[in-house]
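User: I'm curious whether this sequence folds into something compact or stays loose and floppy. Could you predict its structure so I can see for myself?
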Amino acid sequence: MALSLLLASTRPPFLDRTHFKITHTNPKKLTFSSHPNFRNLPTLTFCSGSVHEESGHLPVTPPKPTSLDWDHNVLSTAASLYPLYVTAGGIFACFYPSAFSWFAKRGPASYSLSLGLIMLSMGLTLELKDLIALFMQRPLSILYGCVAQFTIMPAFGLIVSKALGLSPSLSVGLILLGCCPGGTASNVVTLLAQGDVPLSIVMTGCTTLGAVLLTPFLTKILAGTCVPVDAIGLSISTLQVVVVPILLGSYMQSKFPAAVKTVTPFTPLFAVLASSLLACSVFSENVVRLKSSMVAASLPSDASLILRIRSIFSGELGVIILAVLLLHCAGFFVGYISAVIGGFKEPQRRAISIEVGMQNSSLGVVLATSHFTSPMVALPPAMSAVIMNLMGSSLGFFWRYINPSDSEDTTQSQD
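Assistant: Here's the prediction. I'll summarize afterward.
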């Protein structure tokens, strides 16, 4: 969660101290045009990894990395290990669930507060005017992606829950997960996959703001037959823990830029640690029930490791993992196919696929713990925090080694 904040923190700080504007000419050549206030400075061109002055083709030595650059790199690397944190925390919760009791017993207030702080950190790196400007430049692709987000995942949440015969509580949890907006981790995965990052960022922002109405409305329609759903309460909670903190963070960025610039490098790591704590705490609350559903308790003490693992996945935990896997697989695959049908190019296809497939699982956890009596409702979103990020990261690494232009050329030759 909130890994998109890395996009702000990983930018080399020395670029902030120069007066050049980057002009993209081609993937292997970047031209730096001088700032209007420094028109007499020569134009610099990066070409094939070297820098030359266009006038005399003299080599220019790039600025040396400072200690601040290294600090940013360390923080960014630490924040990128989010799937590892959640996985390790989940395993730890299996054996020592009481380790998270100090946080879980204060829920749902502690869950709402942590998500609010995560969204505040996102708002600190978000300028609404830039978001609006990007939306005005490409409204069709953004609207298409947002519609795909709020149709594909909710529909497959219902389909998967019916196909697997999930209990009412787990069905509501899976449908609620499908109705959540796009997760901010999708932005970094899109960057890794050579997708359209601006499209991904704007889609995340728009679906997050739209979730105030759409998430409660869709959950009410699709899950209202299983258990009573308070759509108004869900809407108010979404407004409080998502929209208000984002707007507050954006306001603080515009009014206190110096203070925000100081804390911004630390916000990605804080966000992923808070998200990990949130997911692992919910998982720890359900460990006792999950263990009781496993046949592992009846296994002999000398049973093999393979037999123990098989027994774990044959219980209720295995069904939950399968349901979450199928939901996210459907999001990635159908999201990509819908972008192909829409006539988008490969970078946009990847961005829409990743954005549709990756949800704001932390919001699902907070809404589930705040508005539903059964703790099992929060389990699919909590498990999604691990499964979704592992799947998304794997897909991003796969696409990283496939040039988008090569994919388009292959598609055109087949047509």
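Summary: Confidence is low (pLDDT under 50) at residues 1-58, 410-415. The first helix runs from residue 6 to 9.
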